[in-house]
Please model this.
Amino acid sequence: MSGRLHLIYNAELMADHLGEFEQIVLLAVLRLGDDAYGVPIRREIEKQAGRKTTVGALYSTLDRLEAKGYVGSWFADPTAERGGRSRRYFRVEPTGVEALARAREMFDRMWKGVRLV
Amino acid sequence: MSDRPPKLAERLLRWLVPGREGEIIAGDLREEFRERGGGRLWYWKEALSCAAVRFSPHRLTAPDLRQDLHYAVRLLRRNPGYAATAMLCLALGIGVNATVFSMVNELFWQPLPVPHSDRVAVIGRSGDESVCSYRDYVEFQRRSGGLLTGLLAYDEMPTSVDSEGVSRMAMAEGVTANFADVLQLRAQAGRWFTAEDERPGADPVVVLGDGAWSRRFGRSPAAVGQRLRIESRWYRIIGVAPAGFIGVSPPHTAEVWVPLLSQRYVQEALANPGERERPRVRMIGRLAAGTSLRTVESGLRTIDAQILREFPRENPPRGGLTADVAAGASMPAVREFAGMMAALLLGVTGIVLLIACVNIANLLLARSAVRRREMAVRQALGASRWRLARQTLAEGLTISVGGAALGLVFGYFCSRLMARSMPALPHIGTVTLEGRIDWRVAAFAAAIGLFSALLFSFAPAIEQSRVGLTAWMKGDGPSKRLRQRDVYVVAQVALSLVLLIAATLLLRALGRAQQAEPGYAMAGRLAARIYVSEPEYSEQSGRLFFDRALARVRSTPGVRSATLSYTTPLGFTSSACVAPDAATRRRRVSSDVIVPGYFDTIGIPIVRGRQFTAADSGGAPRVAVINQTFADRYWPGEDAIGKTLWVGCDQKSGRVEAQVVGVARDAKYESLDEAPRPFLYTPLAQDWVGYMAMIVETSGNPADFTAPLRGILHDVDPSLRVYEIETLEQYAAESLWKTRWQASLLAAFGALAMALAAVGLYGVVAYSVAQRTREIGVRLAMGAQRGDVMWMVLGRGLGLTAAGIALGIVLSAMATRLIGRLLLGLSPLDPVSFGAASLAWLAIAMLATYVPARRAMRVDPVVALRWE
Model:
């Protein structure tokens, strides 16, 4: 049962390295601030990154990030539009912020001196 | 566009992601569905994508499955008795199945113990045991360069290996010099053959098998260089084959290997340059890199056709060449027999497993009764039916893991036992079965373990999940569940009775066969197989030897009579071709070559005419004696005396006309269970053969005469080859090995099945007593006698048994037809067997129900009425 169904990454389970999609999700949650739950997160990713994500892909990533301690979640009250179901809000934890920063630094180092013709 | 998302998709989503997380996701999708204004296809896609969440290890609900397993293990640890019983039952069921499967594995799939055995191909020809002649093989070798890196030829040769005056029948393989190269074999000691050893006039050399090396030389490296006498030649030992290599025709065990071209029969055949058909050989090749089996097969077929075109012959073979990976038994006859036995045995062991599974199901049901309150509360707290059922499945899975592991261990010991109990087939040589457990057997055990888990968990899981809180609170339920368990017990009794009846039938058939009239007098007689062979003897000196030997033995004190015969009663048999006249087609009949006085020694009366005398010598008119069936078949209603027969199979040496001078009474010639067959006797004086059995009638115990007889024979000629010496009764007993083996296996499995079912019966009755303690207390308080209570319980147990026996009899009546062929004339519906098995079961059932019945009897009504 090792998340092999997640279509995007090979090394997802290595806690230190954030995969590309994981970074995108974390950034989307950061951008949304207090309003980060499933529906707006997906909308934000689609708008900013131009990527259509399925709800399954999103939540399995969020689960993974939460297991690693990079995000935390809490539940809000149910609403009528959701058929009486609650919302699950996400926030990025300090460890998640660090991981994002590390990833960014790594890309900066790799990009340094590279010229695209 | 509808306002609500598709219900089915939502259900799927909830099934994929149960619990709160699923609710959240459903809520998300509902929101978006609204925003988008619909889109069923989109919703379905999203719902299906939730499979990713399900299989992610970090799901909120993942711990549930792990929790189930954890809980199951804890539960089993707290109830070790229940866990042990369940695992033991399953281990027994899986173990016997694994044992049979390991035999099947060895006979069908086990690869030859050579490096890269998947690249070694056995070349066969459909419809023919041998493949081609040696000269054809040479052509094949020359033309198959692209297909095979090496092609070897071999032939299986039953031969005799002599040491210290005892000759033993052994299997040898005559092989070409490239044998070890093609198979990539290394010698344990010394070396294998080289081209030098195949040169005409080269010193005869032999490679020993590991077993022979152990037995004769104690694995001493000094064996290399010593000499071994095989048939009438001395061979120099040049090496020892690797341990575990028993030749290229498993499970037949080759004891020694010799160069094919050093064998006389090969040299004689090849001396004739026009000879294209003999000697016959079989071939094995190693595939070239990158070629497939199919390519090689079609390539060889092409070469075969070329060879048959370029070298036409009288009897071209009809079947086509086949190439198969070297695995399992090489001879189709062995595979066929093994297949039949495997089917029968797996059916039997399958029944044993079924009975074991029913036991475990009953155990689980009993446990679920105890946990009804817990299940009811869980359900009230929101657990779904699936959730409750999953708990039971987890328990079942845990039991099956333990049971399968134990079963493999049990199967390992069982299969080694069975392998060792395989009787050495008389006159065919040793058969070696290892009884190994390899990955295929382990996979099989795991598979049937899983299957059993599903089987025995199914009903209890459904039961468990069906508990309703209100139903429990009302105190309902026991009666329905008991009925289900009753059905299971009845089924167990029935199934085990089927096995028991089958075993009883086989045992009775065996008993009958052993008592069957063989038509000979067996008591006090033994037979010694001797061989006067070329080049030490010619026909003339051989006859002289036989005369001298017979005279010596007959004059020995303690010997009543002695005679010679080519065949041994119920042992080695032979056949000849006969026809009543020159025009009719020849047919094969069983035959024997004897000396005058044979019928007296062996105890077969002559019913018409006379037996052979000294007057029927080589120069006299040819005579024959036939048996009653022969006379009835060829000359029905007439007197056979004086009729003539044409005897002879060989086209080249022609046939001879013989006159019938006597009719002997029918007897059993090959096995005690055969149908009457025609039989022909010819006198040794007119029909020479050097390989004879000396049959001696002694006044004392014939087994005591074995050593003295050997001594006498070696006294007459020290270099005589004397093979086995056995009493006629031993031959008779050996001829029934197949039936005996089947009967013992079936009896063992039947007993196991019965034991398991008895445990099941005990469990059900004990449980019902426990359930009805209060009722029993009430009865006792109301004045019932203790004896009445005991009978009440006994009655229940016996009632179940009776129902099971009735069902079992019906099932057996249908099933025993399948083994009708093995019963040697006994009716598959033999009432004695049916009756005996049923009575035996009844007795066991009384025992199994007696213990709980006594417990019921001892119930204290005061305690019982207080029990809640």
